Amino acid sequence: MEPIVYREMNTGEEQAVCDLVARVFNEYVASDYGKDGIEEFFRFANPDAMKERMQSKGFVLVAEQAETLVGTLEFFPPDSIAMLFVTIRHHGIAKKLLAQSITKSRALDPELSKLIVHSSPYAESIYQKMGFCKTGNATTENGITFIPMELVLDRENA
């Protein structure tokens, strides 16, 4: 098996990253949403919106195996992660992307004390396994149901 390489997304890869996100979303998450929620998700998860978010010191990390994208995570300031999607499960890809995002976001802001995410109901247990805790009840906005969660950063996960 080829090794998995973790790196920042290159300019011009936005479409490939969004294609990965769409495949995983459609397979695992979309069934939990109605038409409005799916449309709202893709207003966020598209190459143009991603490029715009990257203007504010955000970044996208990718995992690549044999020149194929197998995972992604987006960070946008001051403390939010989004679009953590992987195509190969049970290989620690999400955990490694999260660890690298912590390192990179802490380099941008050494005072960063937590990361927040609006988890889909499908991904709630995945985030819990990575140390995130619920900070509120499931909420639906614009057809998207999410659970607010946070990961408190300390020296151990710095």
Helix content: 25-40%
Query: How would you name the CATH homologous superfamily?
Result: Gcn5-related N-acetyltransferase (GNAT)
Radius of gyration: 15 Å
What shape does the CA trace take?
Answer: globular
Mean of all residue-level pLDDT scores: 94
Order of helices and strands: EHHHEEEHEHEEE
Secondary-structure class: alpha+beta
Main β sheet profile: 4 strands, antiparallel
Number of domains: 1
- Uncertain spans: none
Task: Tell me the β content.
Answer: 25-35%
Could you say what the CATH architecture is?
A: 3-Layer(aba) Sandwich
Give me the side-by-side strand order of the main sheet: 1-2-3-4
Q: What is the number of helices? A: 5
- In total, the number of strands is 8
CATH C-level name:
Alpha Beta
Spatial separation of the terminal alpha carbons: 30 Å
CATH fold field value: Aminopeptidase
